[in-house]
Write a structure and sequence with these properties.
Elements lengths: L3 H15 L15 H16 L3 H15 L5 H19 L7 H24 L6 H11 L5 H13 L3 H16 L6 H12 L5 H17 L3 H10 L7 H16 L8 H11 L4 H15 L2 H27 L15 H9 L2 H14 L5 H4 L33 H12 L5 H12 L3 H29 L1 H20 L23 H4 L2 H13 L3 H12 L6 H13 L3 H14 L4 H13 L3 H14 L4 H13 L3 H14 L7 H10 L3 H12 L5 H13 L3 H14 L4 H10 L1 H6 L6 H13 L2
Length: about 750
């Protein structure tokens, strides 16, 4: 019996032999705009992502007709005929093992046809830098990848840095703007990547060019080259970059990868290599860490740097630095500095900053944001170039003095800076006047080189080369997508969640408990609660007996504002471990948030039994009694807190208010006097006014109320909203209801000019 594939081919031959194609749609009299092209393309890709192939065919036909690019019509008709025949056989109940393969091949072909059509329509008109460079390439002399390989080899052998760099930049651009690679072209590029006689920068740049090219358009041959590059030496920078580029490409085309069995097969093959999972997890954690970059930058610019500026005059006053001469200054640090830093919040922030740096966080981004305007960074490929001490723009090596060479070598070994920032720093130094530059080089080499060497050894011993190199490359990518002059022409990958562990193609290798827990813990530690919760929920389907897991689920939900869901998770955790004080207190807190003080009180009592002297719990118990309107009981706990912690004033406000509610107005008055002398809030003035009114001291009440209004920026209506909420308590205190509007009118008059 003939297979479905052969039947379809025979039918097509018979029909296509007679068929003449007519254009059933009316050609539009205008050229499609780029916006219309992009909108049509996005509709097509959306349909293909949702497996709505009929809609994709219709949209493709409209795009071809609207653009009058009929060179693609034959291919579209052929694909649509194949799909119709497949559907006909399917509806007739005829099953064939080739059906799934035909469907996947057809689906993938539609994606590829859509990409080709979009590029064909965009290349003549689009102002995007990609199409601009593609147009430039079309008018340049043609060079094969084999010829580029020979050119790079020749310049390497003759130590011609300028020629090598120029050839490498051209190769980068050629790969970046290339169309679908042929098998022969792929083989030639593979030889460049694997050539151990070329500088490692060649492989690095080829990988980066492949990444950018794949971001623009899917090409299975380019993806195969990334797979090839992951097979290089275990600690090589090219290999680590290739893994990062591979992960990003699999993420970008997560809807397509299942259509290519070859991709899954290659991934399965490299997954058998030792250390595969470690590489995957390391890269995933580096991208999670990259999410913090903007937050760290804002913290530096808004908190740390302003505090350092404010601290400088204080240091000057404390130590009379203006009276010091260079001869009086020794080598030792002044111990007074420690006291000054300890007295400010800057010390803690700097300590936190140092911990982030040790972890590999991008703490240098803010420093180099404004140092990416050198001519070096106008060349696209240079954003991905490894730091090379012999780079031609640094000048002739024979003309460099010893300090310059030492500085370049020192920078090359620095592990806490990415390559892009190293170039920024060195170009900044070179812009200085010669005398100042030489002095800076000398200071840099004497003071910084030892620190860099020590830092490098510490980092490599703690994190290893894999983490260091992957961290640097992720930061280089971050610089490019955030700071490149024409960055808006590229889709910023860092705006995506980059949740690689959720990719179907990667799940077989990252779905084990250890891997998922590692990723979830990192999300949790970085306060990405939604991402962490997704993984914890996944783990909970098979790990139902872990109280710690349900504690974390509860915590994530609580941080996301789902108090009810958090309570359910905490209660489940309490069933598994009834003695956890942390869980008991969280349950009590959730009940309070949900306005269930009776249930909250029961759990606070349990916590009290386990930790009788915890003042925070004591005051929480008082709050529960207050919410239950058990004011006398609440007062007992508030007084207990005040007695046990007489240095703190946290019990004053609840004591004062409970005293008012229990008609102990003089006691309330005394406590509000204390509060007034210690940074009172608007609510304090409001409550103090209520107390004075209950004591028949109307003038005192008006004074406090007016002060409360002033603290609301003299917004009387806002004050009135707060005031009216307390009317039932005022009536209970003996204030006649008819007096309330009179008091408000009196306040209104008092505020009038």
């Amino acid at each position: 019996m003939q297979s479905l594939f052969h039947k379809i081919q025979l039918l097509k031959i018979g029909i296509l032999g007679q068929k003449r194609y007519f254009w059933h749609t009316i050609c539009l009299s205008y050229t499609m705009t780029l916006q219309e092209i992009n909108q049509a393309y996005n509709r097509i890709i959306g349909s293909l992502d949702n497996k709505e192939l009929k809609n994709a065919f219709d949209s493709l036909q409209s795009l071809i007709s609207g653009s009058r690019e009929y060179t693609f019509q034959y291919q579209l008709n052929e694909l649509q005929d194949t799909y119709k025949y497949m559907l006909r056989y399917r509806m007739d109940g005829i099953k064939d093992p080739m059906q799934e393969q035909i469907y996947h091949t057809l689906h993938a072909s539609l994606y590829e046809l859509s990409d080709q059509l979009k590029h064909k329509l965009s290349v003549l008109e689009s102002p995007l830098v990609f199409y601009s460079e593609r147009r430039n390439m079309q008018v340049m002399p043609k060079m094969s990848y084999h010829e580029f390989h020979q050119l790079l080899t020749t310049h390497t052998d003759t130590e011609n840095e300028v020629g090598y760099e120029a050839a490498l930049a051209l190769l980068f651009n050629k790969i970046w703007v290339s169309g679908l690679l042929t098998t022969e072209e792929g083989a030639a590029i593979k030889k460049i990547i694997e050539d151990s006689l070329l500088p490692f920068s060649a492989g690095c740049q080829v990988v980066s060019a492949l990444l950018l090219a794949l971001q623009i358009s899917f090409d299975k041959e380019k993806l195969m080259l990334l797979f090839d590059a992951t097979g290089l030496s275990a600690e090589g920078e090219v290999r680590i970059r290739a893994f990062i580029a591979l992960l990003l490409t699999l993420y970008i085309y997560r809807k397509r990868t299942s259509l290519y069995p070859r991709i899954e097969n290659r991934l399965a093959a490299i997954a058998e290599e030792p250390g595969f999972k470690k590489v995957m997890l390391t890269i995933i954690l580096r991208f999670i860490l990259a999410r913090d970059t903007e937050k760290i930058t804002r913290k530096l610019q808004d908190e740390i740097i302003p505090e350092m500026i404010k601290l400088n005059p204080k240091i000057t006053r404390k130590m009379n630095l203006n009276d010091f001469t260079p001869e009086q200054l020794g080598d030792e640090m002044n111990p007074d500095w420690q006291d000054i830093f300890a007295d400010s919040s800057l010390g803690k922030k700097m300590e936190e900053f140092g911990e982030l740096q040790q972890e590999g966080a991008d703490v240098m981004h803010s420093t180099f944001i404004h140092l990416k305007n050198f001519p070096f960074f106008r060349e696209l490929s240079n954003w991905f170039l490894p730091f090379i001490p012999k780079y031609s723009s640094f000048g002739n090596g024979n003309k460099q003095d010893k300090s310059e060479k030492e500085t370049l070598d020192t920078l090359a070994t620095a592990t806490f800076m990415c390559n892009s920032d190293k170039y920024s720093l060195y170009f900044s130094l070179m812009k200085m006047p010669e005398a100042a530059r030489k002095m800076m080089f000398g200071q840099f080499n004497s003071q910084v080189s030892e620190m860099i060497l020590q830092h490098k050894e510490e980092l490599i011993s703690k994190r290893g080369k894999l983490e260091t190199v992957s961290g640097q490359y992720v930061q280089d990518l971050y610089r490019f997508f955030k700071l490149y002059q024409k960055r808006l022409d590229f889709e910023d990958i860092f705006l995506s969640p980059l949740d690689f562990h959720n990719l179907p193609i990667l799940r077989p290798y990252l779905s084990d408990e250890e891997s998922l827990t590692t990723i979830a813990e990192y999300y949790l530690r970085k306060n990405y609660f939604e991402d962490a919760l997704t993984i914890y929920n996944q783990l909970a389907t098979t790990k139902k007996d872990s109280d710690i897991l349900f504690q974390k689920i509860g915590y994530c939900k609580q941080m996301l504002g789902d108090t009810g869901g958090a309570l359910d998770a905490y209660l489940h955790a309490a069933l598994l471990n009834s003695e956890s004080k942390w869980v008991i207190r969280r349950i009590a807190g959730c009940y309070r948030t949900l306005k269930q003080p009776k249930e909250a009180l029961a759990y606070y009592r349990r916590y009290e039994a386990l930790s009788p002297d915890n003042l925070s719990v004591q005051i929480s118990i008082g709050h529960c009694h207050l919410e239950l309107k058990e004011y006398s009981e609440a007062l007992k706990y508030y007084f207990k807190v005040e007695y046990l912690d007489n240095k703190s004033h946290k019990a004053w406000r609840p004591i004062a208010w409970c005293s008012f509610l229990t008609e102990k107005y003089n006691q309330a008055h005394n406590y509000y006097l204390k509060i007034m002398a210690n940074d009172p809030a608007m609510q304090d003035y409001l409550n103090a006014g209520h107390t004075e009114w209950a004591l028949q001291n109307r003038k005192g009440a008006i004074g406090h109320y007016l002060q409360a209004i002033r603290m609301e920026n003299e917004d009387f209506n806002k004050f009135k909203d707060h005031f009216m909420q307390d009317v039932p308590d005022l009536i209970a205190a003996g204030i006649e209801e008819e007096e309330v509007p009179l008091m408000l009118d009196q306040l209104h008059y008092a505020l009038s000019p």
